[in-house]
Write a structure and sequence with these properties.
With 201 residues, the protein is of the alpha+beta class. It is built from 6 helices and 7 strands; from the N terminus they run βββαββααβαααβ. This is Methyltransferase type 11 domain-containing protein.
């Protein structure tokens, strides 16, 4: 996990375990993590969050599922059937810790958080333009694909070639530089550390 001190412009980035942050207790206004918290030791991380946050400070954890969709005119349904084929082929290579989706890990962590002020949200859809080759390249960064590549590089590469060709056929184009719209489905939770009781301060 990387963190940036408030004076980040004049400081170097630092790397450290999320469960052992190099900040003073009660010194942090906002602690965030993007698509990483599913690897943390949940109880230890939440204890560390409570240690470093100021009273009134917030923790926000954000991630997305491996159920991205592609949109392009009237072939969107066909594109998503192909995407589903791609993702289904990777499920056997997902880390057992993650299961078929990491969302449950975030829900469990949310339930473990003892702060009374907290919010869970899922269904945030973010659309961005991407090329077919860009989409394939993104999926190739997934840990499940990297495991597939280690296990059977020939089959992993063949899967990418086959999926790319199917997407191009559906779009009726010949170049993987063709644009589509990718829909990423995010979920997040945010919690606020209680303020100190003024009568006890």
């Amino acid at each position: 996990m990387r963190w940036w001190p408030r004076s980040w412009a004049s400081s170097r980035r630092r790397q450290c375990p999320a469960e052992d942050l190099p900040m003073d207790g009660g010194s942090v206004d906002l602690l965030t993590s993007m698509t990483a918290a599913h690897w943390f030791d949940r109880p230890r991380f939440l204890l560390e969050v409570d240690r470093v946050l100021k009273p009134g400070g917030c923790v926000a954890l954000l991630s997305y599922g491996m159920d991205m969709e592609l949109e392009h005119g009237d072939v969107s349904h066909t594109l998503n059937q192909i995407c589903q084929e791609f993702f289904t082929a990777l499920i056997p290579f997902r880390n057992p810790h993650l299961g078929t989706s990491s969302i449950q890990i975030y829900k469990d962590m949310y339930a473990l958080c003892s702060y009374p002020e907290k919010l869970w949200y899922e269904g945030l859809q973010v659309r961005r333009d991407i090329t077919v080759s860009g989409f394939i390249g993104l999926v190739q960064t997934f840990t499940a694909f990297r495991k597939y590549l280690e296990t059977d590089p020939r089959e992993a590469e063949e899967l990418c070639r086959r999926i790319s060709n199917k997407l191009l056929d559906a779009l009726q184009v010949s170049t993987p530089d063709a644009d589509v719209t990718m829909v990423t489905k995010y979920f997040y939770w945010i919690a606020r550390k209680p303020q100190e009781d003024k009568d006890n301060s």
